[in-house]
Amino acid sequence: MIFVTGGAGFIGSNFVLDWLGQSDEPLVNFDKLTYAGNLHNLAALAGDPRHQFVRGDIGDGAHVLALLRQHRPRAILHFAAESHVDRSIHGPDAFITTNINGTFSLLEAARAHWAELDGAGRAAFRFLHVSTDEVYGTLGPDAAPFCESTAYAPNSPYSASKAASDHLVRSYHHTYGLPTLTTNCSNNYGPFHFPEKLIPLVIANALAGKPLPIYGDGRQVRDWLYVSDHCAAIRRVLAAGRPGEVYNVGGWNEMANVDVVRALCAILDRLAPKAGASYLAQLTYVADRPGHDRRYAIDAGKIERELGWRPAETFDSGILKTVQWYLDNQAWVADVQSGAYSNWVEQNYAGRGVAA
Ligand code: NAD
Ligand code: DAU
């Protein structure tokens, strides 16, 4: 079985659903259920014995180690993190606590578990760390995309905390021989994306008749990847990646923010037309994000050459599916926005400790 951290968040829940859609190998899903964790994402797995959910904090090393000893997973897939750049600007503390100290605690638990395995178990074990392209900093307009040897230059508290976690993972391989794998991925989009991030925020605001906020001049560039392609890349790295290696994952799809928002408006104009006006009329330029990175772009050549992975979705196909998902799941967005699901979690988990 495998042990997943952060499997109730955006990418983690997509990963869990995809994993159990293509394999019968069970998993433990260990998640603190912060504001970003949502068990409704996993409703399709209700009653499925292959999915065991445990609420907990990766910073609680004793809890993690007890679970590792109980379940003896062959791999840990580490998604849990504070993930929103704007929140890291307003309040970096949680980012240091979870992304740095939490990853450190998890690595210590993993190392203790790994040391207790027999020879074959130790050789087969993997610690896969899910990280971001933001650790590489920002690119000029004509600079070559980030590759695995690009120097780290993180610019936000979020990316600095992820960079620190990447370095810790690297050191546990180099020093202790822990069989680690690291993936550095570009911007994801798709179902269950929390509506504080650009794409789901714009869809939700458009439908609610609210402004569509564009930071600065809107010409900042991101490399967008449909989330199920990221999940497939992670499965491929887990299956065939070489311990100690880093794999960059991206969509070969650079777009300026304002063009992403225009594309969303065009799809919404078709699928959910408003009488007499385009959603474009809601587009609003607002003050820029402090320290805003201008451009990210990933060279995903290594994972293609060595492991045969390439994205299956184009931006056109992925974004259409995404908008349709949000139109079909407006109750999910309303729940997240109203805080109803966090109330539900309190109601369901208060006094229970561990949920299964
Ligand atoms: P998210 O914020 O949607 O989900 C994070 C999950 O981690 C939530 O379920 C949350 O409850 C859980 N969590 C947070 N702190 C925890 C703790 N201390 N202990 C246990 N669980 C905790 O994030 P996401 O967008 O799904 O990102 C997942 C991972 O992928 C992160 O490590 C992120 O850095 C990385 N990443 C994200 C993107 C992207 O575009 N979203 C791109 C590349 C890499
Ligand atoms: O590159 C990978 C990273 O992508 C991940 O590591 C992060 O976890 C993930 O949140 C994402 O970070 P970004 O900062 O790129 O994503 P976000 O959706 O917050 O913003 C995308 C771009 O859109 C960015 O240039 C800022 C801009 N933006 C964002 C918001 C929320 C706006 O112009 N307006 C907005 O209201």
From TrEMBL:
- What sequence ranges are listed for the domain NAD(P)-binding? 3-320
Please give one Gene Ontology molecular function term for this protein: dTDP-glucose 4,6-dehydratase activity
- Source domain of life is Bacteria
* EC number(s) per entry: 4.2.1.46
Q: Which UniProt keywords apply?
A: Lyase, NAD
Q: Which NCBIfam families match?
A: dTDP_gluc_dehyt
Output this protein's name.
dTDP-glucose 4,6-dehydratase
